[in-house]
Amino acid sequence: MAGIDRQHVHVAIIGAGFGGLGAAIRLTRELTTDVLVFEQAADVGGTWQANTYPGCACDVPSHLYSYSFALNPQWTRSFSGQAEIWDYLRACVDRYGLREHLRLGHQVRAVSWDEERNRWLVDTSRGDYSANIVISAVGPLSEPAIPKLPGLETFAGTAFHSARWNHDHDLTGRRVAVIGTGASAIQFVPELQRRVARLVVFQRTAPWIMPRRNRVIGRAAHRLYRGCPPVQRFIRGAVYWTAELSAAAFLHPPLMRVGQAVARRHLARSVPDETLRARLVPDYTMGCKRVLLSNDYLPALGRDNVTLVTEPIREITPDSVVTADGTEHRVDTLVFGTGFHVTEQSWARFIRGRGGQTLAEAWAGSPKAYLGTTVAGFPNLFLLLGPNTGLGHNSVVFMIEAQLDHIMSALRHLDRAGAATVEPKPAAQAAFVSEVDARMRGTVWLRGGCHSWYLDATGRNSTIWPSFSWRYRRRARRFDPAAYEVTSAGARQ
Q1: In sequence order, what DSSP letters do the residues of 444-459 get, joined into one string?
Q2: Could you say which of 298, 318, 336 is where a domain stops?
Q3: Is the pTM of this model over 0.90?
Q4: Eight-class DSSP state of 374
């Protein structure tokens, strides 16, 4: 690959969602315009471009779900829908002049470190590039997960994942099976219930569901925010600190009793049928799995055309879903709301660092990174929303911006030192991971043997940051040279 004629760029960014676009904005405004953003889709937006299922919306308050440097005074509701968030990101592209830096329709197939020239070789579906710096902003919710159900390949109807919604398939009057009851399913199930003839919802684990207080933000507020941005910043701060306080319950599980009481009251009001309600009571402490927000999912389960099934699925036939008790549920459409590959993402197999080792090999089933951002053995590689940077209580955009502060500080250090490469020392990375694991003990995420998609193949929680988000930002915002190996620019070209 080293002999291929490649276009060279100083910084290559993979992914054009919140992380990738945020990185491009910060870089082009503060350090360099020699930046390219590679995105396999035909447009920017990441998760918000890919997920177009009915009812798709954010479960983080709108005021928190934007860049701090680009507040949106036009949000129409407390919790924004997919189209509105997608429009916001596209508007940011135009506002900050990123179009010329985008390489849409470019699937990154391999990223390999060239030891001799201290640069990354980036192979895409539409050309080969090299870069001094690579920022991976692929995102943890990018690869849909479909369970390996016996007989699935024999299904004669239409089947698709919520993140790959088939809008050409008219669901009106259909007999539909929804497999999975996670964050996406609770949004599209009420929409489907109103359109289909019969809806069968297969639930493996009941989720904790809280009320969703989604009020309209009117024109008067829009005018106020446009005319006086500090007002919106004040509200954003109030919303942030309110959400931040809830982290205490995740870190000290007995405090979750308050939230559980609210959720149980919400369930009782939403589902009058005692038999159905009993099957919707979670058997684990709230917060172990993702806490969901909805006002219409629970009532939808009680409609006459909806059946909730809690028996495990035994097999799929050409026209039905068969459960362990032998019941055959005849359907013509399968919709998977089964989440994403979060801890075992395929892109980790295509990034090769020193000695040709892939990220997947380095991680060996348990992703680990210094500050969730850099990995020993992978010089000049930065991860956005990497290991242990996810949140259960606040906005990940806040975490992305904290990581961007760290990345910008690291790149400034490289420039000042005239250095070629930077990567974390193995000891620094190991110490950080040990600290995270120690903080994780006693939290709701590891309480009582709870199993969730936060846990990796080794049983370790490599997804969530086990503390307050402000603590992460305070820790990550400055580059600590003592934690890094920095090499001279002698071999840099």
Answers
A1: GGGGGG---TTB-TTS
A2: 336
A3: yes
A4: B
Q: Which helix (H) or strand (E) holds 355?
A: none
Tokens, residue 480: 């600590």
114 neighbors 2 (Cβ within 8 angstroms): yes
* Torsion sign across C-alpha atoms 245, 250, 252, 258: positive
Each residue of 433-477: pLDDT tens digit? Answer: 999 999 999 999 987 667 888 899 898 999 999 999 999 999 998
What does the alpha-carbon distance between residue 265 and residue 269 come to, in Å, rounded to a whole number?
A: 6
| Residues 153/315, Cβ–Cβ less than 8 Å | no
Contacts of 219 (CB under 8 A, 6+ apart): none
Tokens of 352: 């090769």
Q: How far is CA 429 from the centre of its chain?
A: 23
Q: Write out the E strands in 338-474.
A: 351-352, 381-383, 419-424
Question: Cβ distance 351 to 381 under 8 Å?
Answer: yes
Which residue range(s) make up the domain with 483? 7-143+341-491
Domain co-membership, 321 together with 372: no
φ/ψ of 389, rounded to 5, equals -120, 5
- For residue 287, give the H/E element and its range: none
CB 492 within 8 A of CB 131: no
- Count how many domains the chain has: 2
